Amino acid sequence: MRMLGLATLMILLVSCGELSNPNPDACQVVRMVSTQAGFRLANTSSANVTVKAGGCIEFVNDDANNFHNAQSRPSAPSNLAFNTAILARGESQKVVFNVAGEVEYICGVGNHATTMNGRITVQP
């Protein structure tokens, strides 16, 4: 009987996690184009992104010459702070934003932040 209760609890916990992000594959895509061109929201020339709370951004490295990451500026509020892994060409990482607010983001590799930066707005 305990095993059945434990199994039921595990199913409920897994289900709750799925409800908080019902479609994790539907992300806005931000491409890491190059140190000269910076970040680009897919199909635009802007590095600025707007998502609803619970939405995600997929950061994709399209630069054949450099490794990049995406991270909030060090001064970002802790509830909006994030940091992807350092990505090689073709690699990507998704970040879910659950709290409304604005955060500036940069590439933290070397001095890339001077040209690779943008703003994320998370709407309620």
Summarize the structure.
The chain contains one helix and eight strands; from the N terminus they run αββββββββ. It has 124 residues and is α/β, with parallel strands linked by helices.
Features:
35% strand, 1 helix, 124 residues, disordered N terminus, alpha/beta, Immunoglobulin-like, 15% helix, 4-stranded mixed β-sheet, single chain
Notes on the protein architecture:
It is built from one helix and eight strands. A hairpin with a 3-residue loop joins strand 1 (28-34) and strand 2 (38-41). The protein is an alpha/beta fold. 15% of the residues lie in helices and 35% in strands.
Helix-strand layout with pairing:
Layout: H1 2-20, E1 28-34, E2 38-41, E3 49-52, E4 55-61, E5 71-72, E6 92-97, E7 101-106, E8 117-123
Parallel strand pairs: 1-4, 3-8
Antiparallel strand pairs: 1-2, 4-6, 5-7, 7-8
